């Protein structure tokens, strides 16, 4: 018996030492200070120290591994080995300045390195007594649909682990009441008596914007079968005639959209009911308050307005038409592509070299990337955006005088989306096509700040994804005004050159009752 014990004792001791060593190593590499010694995010520690997870009401402090690793027994050691290896390699081989930290902090990216199982482990009671009514509704929605819709705690609690300035987690009742910069208030819209570019003014505000006269003409809509990166919904190519019309020089800005929101929002309208603006300015049913901060704290002003729904963009156009007396609307898909091409027939508006566009990092290091640099001069996209929208004046206009047709934000069109829409048009010259008569989703065109070069092609098509873009909206029914999960789409207005263009709006047309 003693001999058997002597035989097994070294193994037992070795096992104890190994387990103890592994435990000690795990504890040593699980401290916040250890994570900070290797993690190269320049603001990770300071933003965590200001967050609700660091300074809690109960005094409990949630550390790095509590969120960025799964609970023990659920792949903890595997995830820790993988995460640690990546961070050590990055520490040894890369410059922290080369990382796009703003992009990594977006909800869709933050979800990849934050474990929902860890959230649930700590927050087992989703309905504490201190929870607000809005919180109860949101958590009830979460418990009923998280598997179906793939919800994640990060979608609503993005500021929990790392502090974010001006972050608004729930209904934002104060949004939209800071209007554009003070200036001379217009008492009438622009009077347009001939087909030339003009600057529109929104009565009752200091907001104005440029409308560019785009002469009509014909072009080949769609992409040939041999075009690089072509998708199957971009053909067959059709010859299309577009009438002359006015195009917004840039996408609708926050200044412009907030003029509409402040006059018409359901949360409390500004006092625009004086005789100067007419008695029915509030007759127009406006947007309800959004959840969170629609601009993502990137800034308002001249940046393109985002996160509003297609229906909201359409309502804005109807309101703008009524208050100016002109016919403003969303462009058709054909009008948009005609304006984006501006007379070109190449895949991109600029004459980009395919090898240069598709070349990997080695080619770019050795030879540079002239085509990507050229694209950056004309559009805001993944190469130069910093993972957010930009001010439109930072890029050059195309030959028609329009900026960012291929970038900054993708843009709503008036057409219903149909993959084979072009095949519905007859052969020969098609005049001012408006798309299919019905459908489920709307067309969007143009790449955005998050897209690479293929999405910037003039013929590239996409469509709205209503269910996906409202996944985290807990309201029943969901908002018809705001997308909760779409930050890369906005819109641009066009104005018809017709009999109404040269008329001033009636003094009592501040709103529309439709």
The CATH architecture of the largest domain would be Alpha-Beta Complex
Lateral arrangement of strands in the main beta sheet: 1-2-5-12-6
Into which percentage range does the β-strand content fall?
Answer: 5-15%
N- to C-terminal distance: 95 Å
Which segments are poorly predicted (pLDDT under 50) over 5 or more consecutive residues?
267-283, 505-514
| Continuous helix count | 17
Biggest sheet statistics? 5 strands, antiparallel
Element order, helices and strands?
Answer: HHHHHHHHHHEEEEEHHEHHHHEEEEHEE
What is the fold named in CATH at topology level of the largest domain? paralog of FGE (formylglycine-generating enzyme)
What would you call the structural class?
alpha+beta
Rounded mean pLDDT score:
81
Features:
single chain, 514 residues, five-stranded antiparallel β-sheet, four-stranded mixed β-sheet, 31% helix, globular, disordered C terminus
Describe this entry's structure for a reader:
With 514 residues, this protein is α+β, with helices and mostly antiparallel strands. The chain folds into two domains: 34-156, no CATH class; 198-496, Alpha-Beta Complex (paralog of FGE (formylglycine-generating enzyme)), CATH 3.90.1580.10. 31% of the residues lie in helices and 9% in strands. The chain has helices spanning 2-28, 32-38, 44-49, 64-68, 76-93, 101-104, 107-110, 116-122, 133-149, 153-156, 254-264, 310-324, 333-341, 354-358, 361-367, 370-378, 466-469; strands at 198-201, 208-214, 217-221, 238-242, 245-248, 328-329, 410-416, 430-431, 442-445, 461-463, 489-490, 494-496. The chain has a five-stranded antiparallel β-sheet. A four-stranded mixed β-sheet has the order 10-9-7-11. A three-stranded mixed β-sheet has the order 3-4-8, with helices on one face. A hairpin with a 6-residue loop joins strand 1 and strand 2 (208-214). The longest helix is centred in the first third of the chain and has 27 residues, at 2-28. The radius of gyration is 27 Å and the shape is globular.
């Amino acid at each position: 018996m003693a001999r058997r014990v002597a035989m097994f004792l070294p193994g037992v001791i070795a096992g104890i030492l190994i387990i103890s060593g592994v435990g000690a190593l795990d504890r040593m590499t699980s401290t916040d200070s250890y994570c900070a010694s290797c993690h190269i995010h320049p603001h990770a520690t300071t933003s965590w120290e200001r967050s609700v997870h660091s300074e809690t009401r109960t005094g409990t402090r949630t550390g790095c591994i509590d969120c960025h690793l799964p609970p023990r027994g659920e792949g903890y050691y595997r995830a820790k080995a993988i995460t640690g290896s990546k961070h050590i390699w990055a520490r040894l081989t890369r410059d922290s300045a080369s990382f796009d930290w703003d992009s990594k902090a977006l909800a869709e990216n933050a979800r990849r390195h934050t474990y929902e199982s860890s959230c649930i482990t700590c927050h087992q009671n989703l309905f504490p007594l201190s929870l607000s009514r809005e919180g109860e509704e949101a958590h009830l929605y979460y418990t009923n649909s998280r598997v179906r819709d793939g919800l994640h705690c990060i979608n609503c609690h993005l500021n929990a682990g790392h502090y974010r300035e001006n972050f608004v987690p729930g209904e934002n009742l104060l949004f939209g009441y800071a209007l554009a910069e003070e200036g001379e208030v217009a008492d009438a819209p622009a009077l347009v008596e001939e087909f030339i570019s003009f600057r529109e003014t929104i009565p009752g505000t200091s907001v104005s914007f440029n409308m560019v006269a785009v002469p009509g003409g014909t072009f080949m809509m769609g992409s040939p079968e041999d075009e690089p990166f072509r998708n199957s919904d971009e053909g067959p190519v059709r010859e299309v005639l577009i009438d002359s019309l006015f195009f917004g020089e840039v996408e609708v800005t926050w200044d412009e959209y907030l003029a509409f929101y402040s006059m018409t929002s359901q949360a409390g309208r500004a006092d625009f009911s004086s005789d100067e603006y007419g008695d029915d300015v509030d007759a127009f049913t406006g947007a309800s308050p959004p959840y969170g901060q629609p601009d993502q704290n990137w800034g308002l002003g001249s940046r393109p307005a985002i996160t509003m729904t297609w229906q909201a963009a359409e309502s804005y156009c109807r309101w703008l038409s009524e208050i100016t007396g002109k016919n403003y609307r969303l462009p058709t898909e054909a009008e948009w592509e005609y304006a984006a091409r501006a007379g070109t027939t190449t895949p991109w508006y600029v004459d980009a070299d395919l090898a240069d566009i598709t070349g990997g990092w080695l080619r770019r290091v050795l030879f540079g990337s002239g085509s990507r640099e050229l694209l950056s001069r004309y559009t805001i996209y993944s190469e130069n955006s910093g993972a957010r929208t930009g001010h439109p004046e930072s890029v050059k206009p195309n030959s028609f005088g329009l900026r960012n047709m291929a970038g900054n934000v993708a843009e709503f069109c008036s057409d219903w989306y149909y993959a084979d829409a072009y095949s519905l048009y007859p052969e020969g010259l098609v005049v001012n096509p408006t798309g299919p008569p019905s459908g489920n989703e709307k067309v969007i065109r143009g790449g955005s700040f998050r897209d690479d070069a293929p999405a910037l092609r003039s013929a590239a098509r996409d469509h709205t994804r209503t269910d996906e873009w409202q996944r985290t909206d807990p309201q029943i029914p969901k908002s018809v005004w705001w997308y909760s999960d779409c930050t890369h789409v906005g819109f641009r207005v066009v104005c018809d050159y017709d009999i109404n263009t040269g008329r001033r709006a009636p003094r009592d047309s501040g709103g529309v009752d439709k």
